[in-house]
Amino acid sequence: DRPLAPEQARALYEWEATPPPDWPSDTVRDVQVRVTNLGDTRWSSVGGRLGRGGVRWRVRWLRVTPEGAEQYWEEERWAFFDLEPGATSSRALSLASPPFEGPAVLEIGMTQSGLANFEALGVPPLRSTVRLEPFRP
């Protein structure tokens, strides 16, 4: 569970379907994302002791306020057993939107569990700005 070097964490992220611009608050939707390993080493979500060092999806919601964006919620999700250099993996992620209304930012990228987010290694996550609307059944 050694930290990846920046050249090992190079990635290309893509939305397979862009999240909708309006999303009811406190509801679950699936988003489809894809990552290509542009680095020079194999990635695995398994990791070492307690999963440390495993490469996983990082999902984060930010609440947009007049003062700026503040983190509301963040979690890691399983990605794959192995992803060789040059290989691509697609994943549908079921995500719950935050229970507030107004603008929010959804970020999805990779992280090396317990060590570093790929963003800190120079790979910004996918970002989508959404407006959280009141839920109407």
Describe the protein.
- The chain has 137 residues and is mainly beta.
- Helix content is 0%, strand content 52%.
- It has no helices and 9 strands.
- It has strands at 11-17, 22-24, 28-37, 55-65, 68-77, 88-96, 102-112, 116-117, 126-133.
- Strands 2, 4, 5, 7, 8 and 9 form a 6-stranded mixed β-sheet that branches.
- Strand 7 and strand 8 (116-117) form a beta hairpin.
- It is elongated and about 45 Å long.
- 26% of the residues are buried.
- The model has no long low-confidence stretch (mean pLDDT 93).
Descriptive labels:
six-stranded mixed beta sheet, single chain, 137 residues, mainly beta, three-stranded antiparallel beta sheet
As a whole number of angstroms, the C-alpha radius of gyration is 15 Å
The termini sit apart by 46 Å
Compressed to H and E, one letter per element, the order equals EEEEEEEEE
Number of strands: 9
| Number of distinct helices | 0
Low-confidence stretches: none
3D shape: elongated
Helix content: under 10%
How much of the sequence lies in strands comes to over 45%
Mean pLDDT: 93
Q: Which structural class fits the helix and strand makeup? A: mainly beta
| Biggest sheet architecture | 6 strands, mixed
Fold blueprint:
Blueprint: E1 11-17, E2 22-24, E3 28-37, E4 55-65, E5 68-77, E6 88-96, E7 102-112, E8 116-117, E9 126-133
Parallel strand pairs: 2-9
Antiparallel strand pairs: 1-3, 3-6, 4-5, 4-7, 7-8, 7-9
Compact description:
This protein is mostly beta strands. It has no helices and nine strands.
